[in-house]
C-alpha cells in the first residue's frame, strides 16, 4: 500500500513539475515573440544589472592584477608610488609593449583599428535599436584592459560601459527586442556598469538616461534604477560601502559671498574642458596625418603613442594610468600651485597622446583629475587674493572636478551626483552646482554638446542636433524606393530622362542626402540607380518618391517622440 502511495505521489510531483516547466517554456516564448511585460522586464533588468556589475568588477580586478604583474602594484590607487622608483627603461618600455599588443588586437579584430567606447554606445542607442558590436567590443575590452594596465592615460568607465552594452545587446538579440525595448535594456546595462564602477547608484541611473538614452522617459526609469542598484550591490559586496575619495573634515563654504568665485571657476573649467577635448581631436587628426604620410601600419600606431607616453612618464610618472592618486592629493590640498598647473597640462597631453594612438579607455577619470587640479589651482589663487572671505581651496578642487568632467561628458546632472557619491560630501552642493552649470553652458557652445557627441559628429553622425537630424541618416533609398515591378512604380522612360540629366540616387543614399535633392530639382521622385560596372551602364533599381520619404521621416519622428514621452 505504501509503495503504491509513493508511486502516486511521485507521479503527481512529475506531472506538476512538467506543467511548471511547460509554463516556463511558454512564458519564454511569449517574452521572445511579444516582448516582456512590465514585471518580466524588471526581472530582466535585475539580471542585466547583476551581470553588468560583475563585468565592471571583473574588469577592475583584471586591471589590478595586470598592473601588479607589470609594475608590482599592490594597491591600484597608489600606482604612482610604485612607478616612481622603477628604472627608467621599464617606465619607457611597458607602455610601448602594451601599445604594440593593443595594436595587434585591434588590427585583427576590428575593421578600423579603433577601440569602442561610450560614443559607440550612444550611437547604438540612437541608430542601432540599442545594439552594439560584439566582436569589436570584445577586442576593445581586451585592448582597453592592456592600455589601462600598461600606463595608458585614460579611464576605465568607457570600456566598462561598452562591455555592459554588449551584455544588453546579447539579451536583446535573444529576446528579438524592438528598438524601444533594446534601448531600455541598454540603459539598464549602462546604469549598472557606472554604478558598480564608481559605487554611485543615483548617478549611474541618471548617466544612462542623460548621456546614453538622452531622454528621461518614465517607462525606462524603474528598470534602469533596479539595474543600477543591482550593480551597486555587486560592487559593495566586494569593496564595502566606501567612497572612491575620502575627504578631510572641516571644509566650509563662505556661501553667498564666495559664490561669484565659483561662477568664475565654472567658466575657467569650461574653457579647460574645451581645450582638453579639442586637444584630443587635434592629436587624433595629427595621428591620422602621420599614419598616412609615413604609411605606418595601423597596428603600430598604439605603440608609437606608448613610446611618447613612456618618454613623458620618465620625467613625470604622475601621468601614468587613471590618476586617482593625484586626484585625491588635489582634493586634500597637498599639491602646490606650480605642481598642480604642470600636472594638469601634462595629464591633458598624456590623454591626447593615448587617444591619438587609439589605445582604448575613457575620458571621465582623466577629466576628474584635470578638473581637481584646475579647481585647486584656482582655489589657491582665490583664497590668497581674498583670504577673509574664502573657504578652503579644496572645495574649489571638488567644484572644479565636477565642472570639467560635466563639460566633457555633457552631463551636468549625473556628473554632479557622481562627484557627490565619489566623495561622500553632500554639504558643498551649492558650489558644485554653480560651477557645473557655468562650465557646461560655456563648453556646449564651443563643441557639439559633449566629447562623445563631437566624436560622433566627426564620424558623420549628427546626433547632437537631435532626432530631427540623425533620423534622416537611418533610412536609405534602397529601403524606401518603389521597385521597378511595383504597381505604383515610376515609368522607366521618366526615370531614364532624369538619369540623363544627372538626377539620381545611389541605393545606400539616406534621407539626409535625398531630401535636399527633392528641394533642388522639384521632382516628385528620383531614380535609384546601382553603380555601373566596368564598361557597363548604370542599372535602374526603382525610384524614391518624395511622399514616401516624408512619410518615413514623419513616422520615425512620431515614434521617437512617443518613446521619449511615455
From TrEMBL:
Which topology term describes how it sits in the membrane?
Multi-pass membrane protein
Entry's localization field: Membrane
Q: Where are the transmembrane segments?
A: 41-66, 86-106, 185-208, 259-283, 303-324, 336-356, 368-386, 398-420, 426-447
Domain CBS per the UniProt entry, residue ranges: 498-559
Principal location = membrane
What is the official name of this protein in its record?
CIC family chloride channel protein
Keywords for this protein? CBS domain, Chloride, Chloride channel, Ion channel, Ion transport, Membrane, Transmembrane, Transmembrane helix, Transport
Amino acid at each position: 500500500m505504501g509503495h503504491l502511495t509513493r508511486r502516486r505521489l511521485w507521479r503527481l510531483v512529475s506531472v506538476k513539475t512538467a506543467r511548471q516547466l511547460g509554463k516556463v517554456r511558454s512564458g519564454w516564448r511569449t517574452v521572445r515573440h511579444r516582448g516582456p511585460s512590465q514585471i518580466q522586464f524588471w526581472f530582466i533588468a535585475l539580471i542585466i544589472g547583476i551581470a553588468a556589475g560583475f563585468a565592471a568588477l571583473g574588469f577592475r580586478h583584471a586591471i589590478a592584477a595586470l598592473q601588479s604583474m607589470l609594475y608590482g602594484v599592490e594597491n591600484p590607487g597608489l600606482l604612482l608610488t610604485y612607478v616612481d622608483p622603477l628604472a627608467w627603461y621599464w617606465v619607457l618600455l611597458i607602455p610601448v609593449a602594451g601599445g604594440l599588443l593593443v595594436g595587434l588586437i585591434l588590427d585583427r579584430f576590428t575593421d578600423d583599428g579603433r577601440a569602442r567606447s561610450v560614443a559607440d554606445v550612444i550611437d547604438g542607442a540612437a541608430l542601432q535599436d540599442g545594439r552594439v558590436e560584439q566582436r569589436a567590443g570584445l577586442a576593445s575590452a581586451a585592448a582597453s584592459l592592456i592600455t589601462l594596465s600598461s600606463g595608458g592615460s585614460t579611464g576605465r568607465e568607457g570600456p566598462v560601459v561598452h562591455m555592459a552594452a554588449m551584455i544588453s545587446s546579447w539579451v536583446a538579440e535573444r529576446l528579438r527586442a524592438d528598438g524601444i525595448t533594446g534601448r531600455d535594456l541598454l540603459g539598464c546595462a549602462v546604469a549598472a556598469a557606472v554604478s558598480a564602477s564608481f559605487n554611485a547608484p543615483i548617478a549611474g541611473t541618471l548617466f544612462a538616461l542623460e548621456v546614453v538614452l538622452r531622454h528621461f522617459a518614465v517607462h525606462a526609469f524603474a528598470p534602469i534604477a533596479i539595474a543600477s542598484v543591482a550593480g551597486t550591490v555587486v560592487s559593495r559586496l566586494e569593496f564595502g560601502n566606501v567612497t572612491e575619495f575620502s575627504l578631510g573634515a572641516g571644509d566650509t563654504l563662505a556661501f553667498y559671498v564666495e559664490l561669484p568665485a565659483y561662477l568664475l571657476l565654472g567658466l575657467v573649467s569650461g574653457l579647460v574642458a574645451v581645450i582638453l577635448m579639442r586637444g584630443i581631436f587635434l592629436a587624433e587628426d595629427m595621428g591620422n596625418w602621420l599614419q598616412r604620410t609615413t604609411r605606418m601600419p595601423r597596428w603600430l600606431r598604439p605603440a608609437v603613442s606608448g613610446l611618447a607616453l613612456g618618454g613623458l612618464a620618465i620625467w613625470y610618472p604622475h601621468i601614468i594610468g587613471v590618476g586617482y592618486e593625484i586626484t585625491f592629493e588635489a582634493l586634500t590640498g597637498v599639491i602646490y600651485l606650480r605642481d598642480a598647473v604642470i600636472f594638469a597640462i601634462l595629464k591633458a597631453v598624456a590623454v591626447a597622446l593615448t587617444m591619438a594612438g587609439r589605445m582604448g579607455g575613457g575620458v571621465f577619470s582623466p577629466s576628474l583629475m584635470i578638473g581637481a587640479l584646475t579647481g585647486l589651482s584656482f582655489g589657491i589663487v582665490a583664497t590668497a587674493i581674498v583670504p577673509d572671505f574664502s573657504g578652503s581651496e579644496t572645495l574649489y578642487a571638488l567644484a572644479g572636478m565636477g565642472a570639467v568632467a560635466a563639460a566633457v561628458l555633457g552631463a551636468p546632472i549625473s556628473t554632479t551626483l557622481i562627484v557627490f557619491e565619489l566623495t561622500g560630501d553632500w554639504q558643498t552642493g551649492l558650489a558644485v552646482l554653480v560651477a557645473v552649470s557655468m562650465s557646461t553652458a560655456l563648453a556646449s557652445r564651443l563643441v557639439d554638446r559633449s566629447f562623445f557627441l563631437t566624436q560622433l559628429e566627426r564620424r558623420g553622425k549628427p546626433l547632437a542636433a537631435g532626432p530631427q537630424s540623425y533620423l534622416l541618416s537611418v533610412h536609405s533609398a534602397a529601403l524606401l524606393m518603389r521597385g521597378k515591378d511595383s504597381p505604383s512604380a515610376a515609368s522607366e522612360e521618366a526615370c531614364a530622362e532624369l538619369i540623363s540629366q544627372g538626377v539620381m540616387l545611389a541605393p545606400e543614399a539616406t534621407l539626409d542626402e535625398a531630401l535636399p535633392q527633392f528641394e533642388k530639382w522639384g521632382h516628385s521622385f528620383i531614380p535609384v540607380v546601382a553603380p555601373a560596372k566596368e564598361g557597363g551602364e548604370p542599372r535602374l533599381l526603382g525610384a524614391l518618391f518624395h511622399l514616401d520619404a516624408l512619410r518615413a521621416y514623419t513616422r520615425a519622428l512620431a515614434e521617437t517622440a512617443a518613446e521619449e514621452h511615455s
